[in-house]
Amino acid sequence: MSLSKSLPTPPLANAVSAIFAALLLILAIGSVAEANPNYASFVIDANSGKVLHERYADSPRYPASLTKMMTLYMLFEAMEQGKVRKNTRIVFSRHAASMQPSKLGIPAGKSITAEAAILALVTKSANDVAAAVAEHLGGTESNFAKMMTAKARALGMAKTTFRNASGLPDSRQVTTARDMATLGIALQEHFPEQYKYFSTRSFKFGKTSFRNHNRLLGRVKGVDGIKTGYIRASGFNLVTSVNTGGRSIVAVVMGGKTGASRDAHMEELIAANLHKATKRRKRSMLVARAGGARFDLDAPSIASLSASDIPVPAFANRAQDRPAETAVDALATVQAPRPSEPIDAIQTASTSTRSGWVIQIASLPSQNEAVEYLRDAQSRAAPVLSARDPFVEEFEKGGVVYHRARFAGFESKSDAWGACKALKKYNYSCLAFDNS
Q: Which residues bind substrate (predicted)?
């Protein structure tokens, strides 16, 4: 028997190679997961909905900048409803401008178009832009995060909770690999035209060009998005969409040790699973459109409010993002505290409005949160606020109720403005105005 006749036929050789490669991948995934508690992965056939691969797919993970996928979903929906157009100006508040990098660096009071915001989120993953979009659509970022969470639930993302629009660190902002794949498919199915933004390789803003953080674009055949993410607590995350030869998959890798290793592992998952996907498209959507939530986008825009009505949001990891530890169910009208008295005596929304110069440091969803925030602020920034008069004032705009955390007791404009300036070093947002 000749040597050539004893060798396996090419089809058999290919099959053996594929099986061997799959076994190596399984072993590699097992060792990676064992050494890395942040690891999770998931691959789904975007045509049929069949799960092709999953590893810790339902375990809680931090989304990091994958969060911006939902921020963009909400923006695309607003555009679809005619509430936002490509040339709509997105104004940056001091809160938005204060976000940590990655950011565009837009000063407070300035604006960019909605289309520029989309491109900045897709490529640069700009945190300041995410916060500005959140405030434009939700009035405050904290309110927008509630809208995002409600939308996630409506889309079937049962294990996802959002606390901000950017993905900056917050221990209660969690998701799963399966939920992120669901969102990736929803973006493609619900907004096919806007989804094309995710394939943008670079974005030029002013004199600076920003390259897309998704390095698989143009490197791996068929990859057309979606989003990368990283914070220290999460590791390197990536949601990738592949459409080629009639086959379509969405793959998720979370917890990569480095960007390069995450990308390499994603390439392995694509190679191991793409050929398993069907070329037949289901007639119905895999992710149903969420109905009954259009009212979410009726919250006031920052740009539409007067200076005294701007719901100034507080920083992401401060008191308003922690559950209230003290029950304040029966806060009665009491005298304002003197400097030596405890902060427990806070004027609430049921009291009369204070006149004269006041400062506002936050606008929060509930009275309890506003009270706790005032307590926290007067404790943390005692040199600035210990002698001031804390109170909560209720404000309704567009059907959304805010509880404004404010301080009175300022003799003049310069006195109030000076307090706001001093509060910057304590990382508090602040707005001073005459409430007469």
A: 227
CA distances to 333, 356, 361 from 367, in Å = 14, 22, 14
Active-site residue identified among 41, 59, 65, 241: 65
Average pLDDT of every residue of the chain? 81
Query: Does residue 301 or residue 128 have the better pLDDT?
Result: 128
Mean pLDDT of 210-236: 95
One of 41, 59, 93, 125 is an active-site residue; which one?
A: 125
Helix, strand, or coil here: 253? strand
65 belongs to the catalytic site: yes
| Residue range 303-344, pLDDT digits in tens | 333 333 333 333 333 333 322 222 222 222 222 333 333 343
Residues 6+ apart with CB under 8 A from 427: 315, 318
More confident residue, 5 or 155: 155
Q: Is 159 a catalytic residue?
A: no
pTM above 0.70, yes or no: no
DSSP result, 282-305: PSS-SSPPPPS-GGGGGSPPGGGS
Q: Does 227 show up as a binding residue in the annotation? A: yes
User: What does the alpha-carbon distance between residue 393 and residue 347 come to, in Å, rounded to a whole number?
Assistant: 9
125 is catalytic: yes
Candidates 281, 283, 267; CA nearest to 220 is: 267
Domains of the chain are: 34-295 (3.40.710.10), 308-434 (3.30.70.1070)
